[in-house]
């Protein structure tokens, strides 16, 4: 849980560069490296910071086709059932329950449009999948 503006500044520094040293962050926020470490450790322990991640270039790993797929289910479906429906699909990088007509929104990254089509067809083949609507990403304009 954020205690004050210093916590916010530390988190902003980590979001900008998760590999920044504690001394670099401390210099930016006006604290010593040990003080920053204590705060970061507390933010990790209380669940405010859930982890530190590498951001990988899609082109470098061959996932140049990106899409969002609306999943409409045949019957009332809870989030755990939706997660189970797509659990075997490694190209589905995130699954969200959403408001609106769809039951879920699937974020898919594949190597090609043909691979995307195969993922969508496997999802559609599930007994509780009524239909899907796919929107292919042309370009990302902000992160």
Structure description:
With 143 residues, this protein is of the alpha+beta class. The protein is 40% helix and 21% strand. The two termini are 25 Å apart. 17% of the residues are buried.
Number of contiguous helices? 6
Separation of termini?
25 Å
The low-confidence parts are none
User: How much of the sequence is in beta strands?
Assistant: 15-25%
Question: What is the total tally of β strands?
Answer: 4
Mean pLDDT score = 95
Strand order of the largest sheet: 2-3-1-4
**Shape, please?**
elongated
Question: Major sheet, described briefly?
Answer: 4 strands, antiparallel
Order of helices and strands: HHHHEHEEHE
Structural class based on helices, strands and sheet pairing: alpha+beta
- Share of helix among residues? 25-40%
Radius of gyration: 20 Å
Helix and strand arrangement:
Blueprint: H1 5-16, H2 22-29, H3 33-45, H4 58-61, E1 65-73, H5 79-86, E2 92-97, E3 104-110, H6 113-124, E4 129-136
Antiparallel strand pairs: 1-3, 1-4, 2-3
Helix pairs in contact: 1-2, 2-3
What is the compact description of this entry?
With 143 residues, this protein is of the alpha+beta class. It is 40% helix and 21% strand.
Structural descriptors:
elongated, 40% helix, 143 residues, 4-stranded antiparallel sheet, alpha+beta
């Amino acid at each position: 849980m954020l205690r004050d503006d210093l916590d916010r500044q530390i988190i902003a520094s980590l979001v900008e560069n998760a590999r920044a040293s504690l001394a670099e962050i401390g210099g930016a926020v006006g604290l010593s490296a040990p003080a920053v470490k204590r705060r970061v450790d507390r933010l990790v322990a209380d669940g405010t910071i859930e982890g530190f991640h590498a951001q990988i270039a899609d082109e470098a790993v061959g996932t140049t086709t990106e899409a969002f797929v609306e999943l409409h289910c045949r019957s009332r479906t809870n989030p755990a059932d939706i997660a189970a429906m797509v659990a075997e699909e490694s190209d589905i990088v995130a699954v969200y329950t959403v408001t609106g007509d769809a039951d879920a929104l699937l974020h898919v990254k594949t190597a090609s449009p043909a691979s995307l089509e195969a993922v969508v067809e496997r999802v559609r083949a599930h007994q509780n999948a009524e239909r899907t609507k796919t929107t292919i990403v042309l370009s990302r304009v902000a992160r």
